[in-house]
Amino acid sequence: MAIRNIREIGDPVLNKKCKEVNELTDRTRELIDDMFETMYDADGVGLAAPQVGILKRIVVIDVTGEDPILLINPVIMETSGEQRGYEGCLSVPGKNGIVTRPNYVKVKAYNEEMKPFELEGTELLARAICHELEHLDGHLYVERVEGELVNTADLVEQDEE
Ligand code: ZN
Questions:
Q1: Is it the case that residue 55 has pLDDT exceeding 70?
Q2: In the chain, how long is the greatest CA-to-CA distance?
Q3: Domains by residue range for the chain, with CATH
Q4: Which comes out higher in pLDDT, residue 157 or 9?
Q5: Closest among 77, 76, 78, 27 to 49, alpha carbons compared
């Protein structure tokens, strides 16, 4: 396993549409392992393959730090409700912005054996699923931000006041 370089906003790879995964090669398995390692190393709750420069429809998420989720070729089946809150992205370091997302999401995807499964998420998990899936179509959350991006350091200060 290895930590990969996280691509940042302005890198054209982040604006490209990713291709579906048809079979899990050793190379793809290695990519998945590296994506988890890279996400944990960066203290992120999610990472999409284009963020490490690979245009494949693969996402890793872990909103609790102990519940790793792999989504291959994920598709959102259902959403409901609404949540509004600050969001961040490993490809937009040091910044956060307010984004409205569904509060519930149901997604269909393939697992590490290329078996289909469904996953339901609420709150932060729903937010992470929506955020990461948009990466696969070349979109960043900053396109959806309500108001201005703020510095993460300022947010932390606000919380402490
Ligand atoms: Zn992101």
A1: yes
A2: 51
A3: 12-160 (3.90.45.10)
A4: 9
A5: 27
Distance 139 CA to ligand 1 centre (A): 9
pTM over 0.85: yes
Q: Which residues are catalytic?
A: 132
The answer on pLDDT for 161 being more than 60 is no
CA distances to 1, 36, 47, 111, 127 from 121, rounded to whole Å, are 28, 19, 16, 16, 8
Q: What spacing in Å lies between the alpha carbon of 156 and ligand 1's midpoint?
A: 20
The tens digit of pLDDT for each residue in 10-49 reads: 999 999 999 999 999 999 999 999 999 999 999 999 999 9
Cα–ligand 1 centroid distance for 88 (angstroms): 7
Instruction: Give, as residue ranges, everything with CB less than 5 Å from ion ligand 1.
Output: 89
Is the pLDDT at 159 greater than 70? The verdict is no
90: CA distance to ligand 1 center in Å?
6
Burial class from Cβ neighbours inside 10 Å (0-12, 13-18, 19+) for residue 129 reads buried
